[in-house]
Amino acid sequence: MTMKNPDKPIIYDRIESPIGSIVLAGDGEALSFVGLPESRHPVNIPPEWTRSRPAFAKAKRQFDAYFAGELINFDRLAWPMARIPCRSSCRAIA
C-alpha cells in the first residue's frame, strides 16, 4: 500500500459488517486502503501498523449507513482520502 506521506505510520482499524470484517487503513489523515473479506488478496496486518479505533470515523459511519440500507452511494468527499481504489472495492459490496 502506498501512503500519501511515507514518513507517517500506517493507522488502521477493522469494522464489522454483514459481509465480514473490513479493514480501513491510511496515514491518519487520508484513507488509502479498504480491505474487504473474501477478496482475492487477503489483508494481513503488518506488525508496524497501529490500530486506532477512532480513525476514519466518517468512513465507518458511511459503511454502517450503507449496510443499514440508509446509504446507496459513498460520499468520497467526506473521507479525507489519498488514493483509494474505491471503484472496485465499493462495487464489490454493492
Q: What is the average per-residue confidence, as pLDDT, rounded to a whole number? A: 77
Q: What's the CATH class, please?
A: Alpha Beta
Number of helical runs?
A: 2
Low-confidence stretches: 82-88
Helix content: 10-25%
Largest sheet: 4 strands, mixed
Q: What's the structural domain tally?
A: 1
Record field, number of beta strands: 4
**Shape designation:** globular
**Binned strand content:** 15-25%
Which strand order does the major sheet show? Answer: 3-2-1-4
Distance between the termini: 23 Å
**Alpha-beta classification:** alpha+beta
Rg (CA only): 12 Å
| H/E series | EEEEHH
The appropriate CATH architecture is 2-Layer Sandwich
| CATH homologous superfamily heading | Methylated DNA-protein cysteine methyltransferase domain
The fold-level CATH name is Double Stranded RNA Binding Domain
Textual characterization of the structure:
The protein is an alpha+beta fold. It has a single domain (11-93), classed as Methylated DNA-protein cysteine methyltransferase domain (Double Stranded RNA Binding Domain). 20% of the residues lie in helices and 22% in strands. A 4-stranded mixed beta sheet has the order 3-2-1-4, with helices on one face. A hairpin with a 4-residue loop joins strand 2 (20-26) and strand 3 (31-35). The longest helix is centred in the middle third of the chain and has 11 residues, at 57-67. The chain starts with 10 loop residues before the first strand and ends with a helix.
